[in-house]
Amino acid sequence: MPAGGRTRPPRLRPGDRVAVVAPGGPVDPVRLDAGCAVLRGFGLDITTGPHVRDRTGFLAGRDADRAADLQAAWCDPSVRAVVCARGGYGSMRLLDRLDWDALAAAGAKLLHGASDVTALHVAFGARLGLATTFGPMAALAPIGSAEPEPGSLACLRDTLFAPGRTQVLAAPTPRALAGGRAFGLLDGGNLSLLASLAGTPYAPPAAPGRIVLLEDINEEPYRVDRMITQLLLAGWFDGVTGVILGSWVGCGSPEEVEEVLAERLLQLNVPVLAGLPIGHGVPQLTLPLGVAAELDADAGTIALHEPALS
């Protein structure tokens, strides 16, 4: 079913087969096993890519092998969704190795992940016309840990199986850097990846009519400033209707990074909501990308016009 120009993949059902792959950084096998156990606890049939436990320096194995795992999982007609084990770095390196015609021919299924997986979210949205979900990954907290965080699990489970229950996401401690309401297609993701893709054939499309998510981890405030400035100069923010600010773990003091974000973003004259636990840290909400929504910065909520999945 179209969602603002994108197709929403079908929701999952108990017994559905889900593939876990590692498109970026190397995976902690203990966390991977824990996260897969959680997903099996949802009633899913979990399979892992042949190279998901590989390690080559700062990558989860060779580019060719990581791309092959993703390609094979997506094109397997028995697989209903592909969940990324973790982010780290490396998803960008796969974009030129994927057979986009074959991926398109495989039909609509779900891609789920966060952080570095932003490179895949952008490409799957632009090239395949699919809505995707940005949320906690299999081999990282709050899923792949000894004590998974209940709120994060509930949001992920409902998004996958009963998406109508997650049509309103609320910030526990909302901060409206700029108040008001905005309507548009949810987009964006990890700031570092959005900036790194600029100027490439996989650059994120400009954001007119969109509500954009921004989040990051372990970036100094001046680097956050630099990346937002790069996207501003590239015209990516032109016509944006609102901004959602997720987590900024390890990006300096909350006050300092928020000051940088406000100074750079308030010039857009659109609602800007901070304080949503999306991206890194615990808890983590699951946010659909490519779905029409309303942002109410004063109330601290995001209301989807339709469920994340069909």
Strand order of the largest sheet: 8-16-15-10-11-12-13-9
Q: Architecture of the largest domain in CATH?
A: 3-Layer(aba) Sandwich
Q: List the secondary-structure elements in sequence, H or E.
A: EEEHEHEHEHEHEEEHEHEHEEEE
| Poorly predicted runs of 5 or more residues | none
Global structural class: alpha/beta
List strands and helices in order, with pairings.
Blueprint: E1 2-3, E2 6-7, E3 17-21, H1 29-41, E4 45-48, H2 63-75, E5 79-84, H3 100-105, E6 110-113, H4 118-128, E7 132-134, H5 150-161, E8 168-170, E9 175-178, E10 181-190, H6 191-197, E11 210-217, H7 221-233, E12 242-249, H8 254-265, E13 272-274, E14 287-289, E15 292-296, E16 301-304
Helix pairs in contact: 6-7, 7-8
Can you characterise this structure?
53% of the residues are buried. The chain starts with a strand and ends in a 6-residue tail after the last strand. β6 (110-113), α4 and β7 (132-134) form a beta-alpha-beta unit. The chain has two domains: 2-164, Murein tetrapeptidase LD-carboxypeptidase, N-terminal domain (Rossmann fold, 3-Layer(aba) Sandwich), CATH 3.40.50.10740; 166-304, Glucose Oxidase, domain 1 (3-Layer(bba) Sandwich), CATH 3.50.30. By secondary structure, the protein is of the alpha/beta class. An eight-stranded mixed β-sheet has the order 8-16-15-10-11-12-13-9. Strands 4-3-5-6-7-14 form a six-stranded mixed β-sheet, with helices on both faces. A two-stranded antiparallel sheet has the order 1-2. It is globular, with a radius of gyration of 18 Å. The chain contains eight helices and 16 strands.
Concise overview:
With 310 residues, the chain is α/β, with parallel strands linked by helices.
